[in-house]
Amino acid sequence: MLVITGVIFFATLSISAYYSLQNIFEYSVIGSFLLGFLYYPLNEKLVDWLFALSSPRIDNLIKEAKNSKRGFEGEDLVNSWLEDIVGKNNFLKNVKLPFHIFDFDAVIIGDKGIIVLEVKNLSEQVYFENDQCYIKKDGRQIFLNKDSRNILNKRVSVLREYFSSHGVGHIAIQKALVYSNGLVTWKGDVGVYIIKDKNVLENYLNNLDMDPECTVEIQNKIKKLLNN
User: Fold this and answer.
1) CB-based burial of residue 104 (10 Å sphere; 0-12 exposed, 13-18 middle, 19+ buried)?
2) Which one, of 110, 73, 75, 69, lies nearest residue 95 by Cα?
3) With 0-12 CB in 10 A as exposed, 13-18 as middle and 19+ as buried, what is 82?
4) I want to staple 27 with a disulfide (CB 3.0 to 4.6 A). Which of 20, 21, 39, 128 is the partner?
C-alpha cells in the first residue's frame, strides 16, 4: 500500500512539473497562492510569538515613560514654588556631581545654608509610619522596596563628602521630601521633613535658622561647585 501511494505521489508530482513547464505563468500563480496559504498560519504563529515576547517590554517602556513625565511635571511645579519663595537665583535644579549618575532635584543656597529637596510626584498615596514606607492596594499594605528617605539620606551624605573635599564641609545641609501632588501621609518619627504643598514648603524654609558660616562668599563658591 505504501509503495502504491508513493508511486501515485511521484506520478502526480511529475505530471504537475511537466504542465508547470508548459504553462509556467499559470502554475506559478497557483504555486504562489498555495505557498501563501501554507505560509499564513506559520506567519500568524510567528506574529503571536513576537507579540508575546515583546509585550511585557513595551508595557514597561510605556510605564517608565509615564513615570518620567510625571516626575518632570512634579519638579517643574516645585521649581515654580521656589521661584516665588526664594527667587530663581537662589536655588539650582537637577544638580549633578562629578562621577555620579543621579541628580539632586533642587538645591537651595542661601544664608540658611544648603537645603536639598527630593521631589516626588507619584500616582498613588504614599504612607510613612516610623521606619515603614508603603502604599495601599485592595485594602492591603504593600511595602516599597525603595524608601525615598533612604535615597535622600544617601545623596546628602555624598554631597557632604563632596563639599568636604572642596573645603566647605562645615556648612549646614538641611533636607526634605516634597510630594508635589500632596499624595503623602505620615505619622510617628519618620526621620525627615515631608512637604505636601507650597504653603508647607514656604513655612519650612522660613522657620530654618540662619547659618552664620554660609557667607555670601561661601554661597558663591558652592554655586560654582554645583554648576560644574
Assistant:
1) buried
2) 75
3) buried
4) 20
Say how far apart CA 226 and CA 50 lie, in whole Å. 46
180 belongs to a structural domain: yes
For residue range 93-102, list pLDDT tens digits in order. Answer: 999 999 999 9
pLDDT top residue among 52 and 179: 179
Please give the torsion angle defined by the CA atoms of residues 117, 120, 126 and 127, in that order, rounded to the nearest 10 degrees. Answer: 0
| CATH code where residue 114 lies | 3.40.1350
Q: Which residue has the cell 515613560?
A: 65
CB 147 within 8 A of CB 86: no
What are the CA-CA distances from residue 202 to residues 113, 174, 199 (Å)? 16, 14, 5
Q: Are 91 and 107 in contact (CB under 8 A)?
A: yes
End-to-end CA distance of the chain: 87
Q: Is residue 184 part of a domain?
A: yes
Cβ count within 10 A of residue 178: 27
Question: Of all helices (H) and strands (E), which one includes residue 113?
Answer: strand 113-120
Question: How do residues 96-143 score in pLDDT, each as one tens digit?
Answer: 999 999 999 999 999 999 999 999 998 899 999 999 999 998 889 999
Q: What DSSP assignment string belongs to 127-163?
A: EEETTEEEEEETTEEEE-SS-HHHHHHHHHHHHHHHH
Owning domain of residue 201? 70-227
Measuring CA to CA, which residue among 68, 71, 142, 82 is closest to residue 116?
A: 82
For residue 127 the three cell numbers come to 504612607
